[in-house]
Amino acid sequence: MRMRMLLAAAMLMAATTPAMAIDTCSGGNRAARKVTCVVDGDTIWQRGVKMRLLDIDAPETSGAQCDRERAIGKQATHRLQQLMASGYRIIDDGKKDRTSDRRSLVRVILPDGRDAGKVLIHEGLAQHWPNVGNRWCDGRQGNGS
Fold first, then answer.
1. Integer-rounded Cα radius of gyration of the chain
2. To the nearest 5 percent, what fractions of the chain are helix, strand and coil?
């Protein structure tokens, strides 16, 4: 039993990504290029694999329904980059989301043990998933103008 616990701890430590700047995603062929980057507050690429943070919904940066959603979405993106820059590990739920991308559902765990998604929720930059409606636009459609 103790050997299993030591092995599990070693695997978690080995899976921890060291502290480094995390870029905003850009360009195509991310899988082939094996990039690690942040798309938005709830979507990342890790070594060429597209992943979605489990149990959260962050505002959209592309295709936002209003200016407020886009602005908070950019804040969430930058905050996730900042959190991940201190180092992190990925815990893969083993499930895929229901989108056509079939993204892996994961948790991003920070060096202090916090879940990055829960930090975003606590800071008002994301909400729990599943959710109802678009709280960022108060149900409005369009660009918010």
1. 16
2. 30, 25, 45
Tens-place pLDDT, residues 54-78: 999 999 998 899 999 999 999 999 9
In the predicted structure, residue 19 carries a pLDDT above the cut 60 = yes
Determine the Cα–Cα distance for residues 127 and 121; give it in Å rounded to an integer: 5
Contact indicator for 32, 52 with CB cutoff of 8 Å: no
CATH number for position 89: 2.40.50
Among 13, 5, 10, which Cα is nearest to 109's?
Answer: 13
Tell me if 134 is assigned to some domain. Answer: no
Tell me how many domains the chain contains. 1
**140 lies in some domain:** no
Prediction pTM value: 0.81
**Amino acid letter for position 131:** N
Pair 72, 59: CB distance under 8 Å? yes
Instruction: Tell me if 59 sits within 8 A of 73, measured CB to CB.
Output: yes
Q: Which residues contact 135 (CB under 8 A, 6 or more apart)?
A: 127
